[in-house]
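Hi everyone,

Forwarding the result from last night's run.
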Amino acid sequence: MRNHASLLLLPLLSLFACAPTEGPPDGEPQTGEAPQAAVTPLRAKALGRMRNAAKYFHDNVARHGGYAWHHNASNLSERWGDIQLDEEQIMIQSPGTSDVAIAFVEAALADPATPALKTYALDTAMALRHGQVKSGGWRLYADFKPTPTLRACYLNTTASCGCGGCSTTAYDDQVTQNALIAMMRVDQLLGFANADISSASAYARARMETSQYPTHGGFPQGFSAPVAARPALVASYPPSIGTSCGLAQCHANAYTTEYWDDPTLNDNLATAFVEMLYWAQEVYPARAATYQSMRAAFGDFLRRAQMPPPQPAWAQQYDGQMQPRWARSWEAPAIAGQESQDVMWALLRLYQLDPSVPANRDAVATALAYLETVDFANDTLIHRYIELDDTAPSNIGFYTVKAGGYPVRFSSAAPTYQNYAWEVPSQLAALRAEYTRLATDTTVMKRTCQQLRHDTAQAVDAAVNNEKWLTTYSPGGPRSGATPGDYLDTSTFVRNLRTLAEFVTRTTTDCTAWNY
């Protein structure tokens, strides 16, 4: 797992078009205006920043319509994802091109008086279209060179696919889920009138429908062809639980299938699948019954994947018997704190969408009661891995993982491997609050008007030249070769643009009192 939370998988708000506020494009007083112009409503400033920032990012930062994660503000040709990219390469993986497409869609919906925002969304979606692979979805990167160095079996440009796994669609790191959400939303924004975008979405959805295990309901980490049916088994512990042989020796580390072909929850895939299926159902009502059925089947899988007592949470990876299994050499068969939190968010979202299935919310109650006993560091952190059959409240110390792997560290010391999140922020308090809220209110969770105004004012004030946000970057780890200094971070741009779009919209609906 990389330390990038997906920006698309925050609770997704329904944004509606609204009338623009009249005034100068950037919301600031024009020369010669009276002093009282200093009290221009915040909404006008938000509109100006949103338009200017979108234009700057599209016109100056994009390459072939796509984006990296980090762009050197002084030298925009220096571009980084999880590796350094040349100017013909873009990141699909979040926080990359897919996130930017969604941000442009939401800005366009909030500000229909600025048609350029639709153009920006289309250009970004066309970059995603270029990166679509023949199996239907997307991979981490897209390369626009005639002979790509980041090889992939591209649907629209690759004549012969002889590069091994480069034809495989990646669900890992939410790559395809987020890209498909972006394509669907751009298709809808354009009124389904752009044949290239519509066909790319249809092609991806048709193949996505064949990637969910029939009967079973889960998804693999990736696919290159339709997956075979699996029985709807309930999760169980490996047979060695209760012995004293130690984790690495107790549990199998040889399997008849590769881990990426088995059902996975790695890297927050549960919420990604729920949102992908939600948007498919919303955008394409002719197929709504199919996507609703797939979403229900996935909820059934999530409940069956919950481990039985004494540890009713979730593993990162399961084998064919629905028992926790090894993935990579440092990814142990264990209770996974990060993935368990993500599954709970997914189940609460499923319940919010369909309260007629209370079992989804009930599963969260059971998991919370357990995980709240193993939270640590003043309830601010949770372990990435919790040893199976370990019910101690603190889990301090080490255990050895598969030969050649990294030790899993249950302490507040610096992790062994800096690019992997051994300890992650605890979201248990927020999960408990949402679990409680849903008992009486099943509307979409969204930030309060007061918080939205605060976040908007912060985004407005932080914009440099009213058009961009800078992040000081001290590179390390796999990006240690980057030039230190100010960068244009895609994650910052997306977060702020979506905040401004939400504020522009909600100040005409439920937050009218905050329009100042």
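The longest helix spans residues 42-61.

Cheers,
N.
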